[in-house]
Amino acid sequence: MTARHPQRPTRVGVISDTHGMLRPEALVALRGVDHIVHAGDIGAPEVLTTLQGIAPVTAVRGNNDRGPWAAAIPETNAVEVGGVWLYVLHDVQALDLDPEAAGFAAVIAGHSHRPLLERRAGVLFVNPGSAGPRRFTLPVAVARLRLRHGRLSGEVVELDV
Q1: Could you tell me the CA-to-CA distances from 60 to 48, 92, 120 in Å, in that order?
Q2: What residues form DSSP beta bridges with 141?
Q3: Is 77 domain-assigned?
Q4: How many Cα atoms within 13 Å fall on the side-chain side of residue 41?
Q5: Percent helix, percent strand, percent coil in the chain, to nearest 5
Q6: What is the largest CA-CA distance in the chain?
Q7: Residue 1 lies in a domain
Q8: Nearest-angstrom CA–CA distance, 122 and 148
Q9: Nearest 5°: CA angle at 78, between 9 and 127?
Q10: What's residue 68's pLDDT?
Q11: What range does the domain containing 15 cover?
Q12: Residue 52's domain is classified under what CATH number?
């Protein structure tokens, strides 16, 4: 995979585990992004429709996404954004490739509801946490990635809910 590096920074919003609940605070946190990645457990097709009103969306199916609407959503996906490749799946434990060798700048996953930004062997592993119903004492959060000149950085944004 060859990368091209745009002059303008590219912003990617990352959301997961909405479970059919799209909080207004999440929409505000994603405002202004160039692309949105939903890492599964979407919960309802309306979630994706609403997100598509903000920016183009790449989504994967989570273990709780069932029914005819979810059948067309892949379990894994790869997308080029801002000149770098992102690999998306719901549960990072199911990762069955070497993302560095495959040329991915990031691996994006959800499932655990635990926010994570961690660089491993040059690849940024991102879990935005859960933006849907609160689970235990875990934060309700999304993530934002920024790509500039081929460099990828990110932040977890805890939602004030």
Answers
A1: 11, 12, 22
A2: 158
A3: yes
A4: 22
A5: 15, 35, 50
A6: 42
A7: no
A8: 16
A9: 70
A10: 96
A11: 10-158
A12: 3.60.21.10
pLDDT for position 155: 97
The tens-digit pLDDT sequence of the chain (161 residues) is 545 544 567 999 999 999 999 999 999 999 999 999 999 999 999 999 999 999 999 999 999 999 999 999 999 999 999 989 999 999 999 999 999 999 999 999 999 999 999 999 999 999 999 999 998 889 999 999 999 888 999 999 999 98
Total domains, the chain: 1
Query: Is 66 a member of any domain?
Result: yes
Side chain identity at 153, as an amino acid letter? S
Give the H or E element holding residue 30: helix 24-30
pLDDT recorded at residue 78: 98
Q: How far apart are CA 123 and CA 69, in angstroms?
A: 32
* Residue 73: φ, ψ to 5°: -90, 125
**Rounded to 5 degrees, what are φ and ψ at 93?**
-65, -20
Radius of gyration (C-alpha) of the chain in whole angstroms: 14
The full length of the chain comes to 161
Domain presence at residue 2: no
